[in-house]
Amino acid sequence: MKKTVVLYPGLAVSHLVPVVQLADALLEEGYAVVVALIDISNEQNIDFAAAVDRAAASKPSVTFHTLPRIKDPPSIAYDARFILGYFELVRRYNKHLGELLCSLPPGSVHAVIVDALSNEAIDVTREMGIPAYTFFGWSASALAASLQLSLIPTEGQLSFKELGDSPLDLFGVPGPCRPPVSSMNSSRTRRARYTNRW
Hints:
The protein is of the alpha/beta class. It folds into 2 domains: 4-135, 3-Layer(aba) Sandwich (Rossmann fold); 140-195, no CATH class. The chain has helices at 13-28, 46-58, 82-92, 94-103, 122-128, 140-149, 160-163, 186-195; strands spanning 4-8, 32-37, 62-66, 109-115, 132-135. It has a 5-stranded parallel beta sheet, with helices on both faces. Strand 4 (109-115), helix 5 and strand 5 (132-135) form a beta-alpha-beta unit. Helix 1 (13-28) packs parallel to helix 2 (46-58), helix 4 (94-103) packs across helix 5 and helix 6 (140-149) packs across helix 8. The longest helix is centred in the N-terminal third of the chain and has 16 residues, at 13-28. The chain is globular, with a radius of gyration of 18 Å. The chain starts with a strand and ends with a helix. InterPro entries: UDP-glycosyltransf_plant. GO terms for molecular function: UDP-glucosyltransferase activity.
């Protein structure tokens, strides 16, 4: 029996495409690949639905599985609280992800690889004793910034408000790409702390 790797991408084309590329590499290494998808309607994200359809049509050796739709899914508004709503959506799909993992042949799941914004799913794999990994399919600068945001500001340091418009000094992030501190809102730093808790 082939070992299976379950991939759990984020809900944007820019998160799906790198995961599908990872699926190709896993297939070359001899793994069976299942891509678990949160059920979002075409009306909510037409581009994502079209990208999933294209990927499924072009990758017949990859199993694409849409998790059953949850009751009263939270709407995700693209505002300052977007990321918190996104985490809530992923968390509410944990039960269905667990059901999918249980439905696969016993002992066949080698690992689950979740998108960096879907770390809520790691709770499911931890409970089931399945190794899980976070996949960060963005640039190295974005990874460096994401990892460091969880550490700032810490107690005894100036707050973002006190730092004003000075550039945020992040190791590994080129000078011209450094955002001004004033662009960092509290929900972004809470998200970074929460995302990096593992």
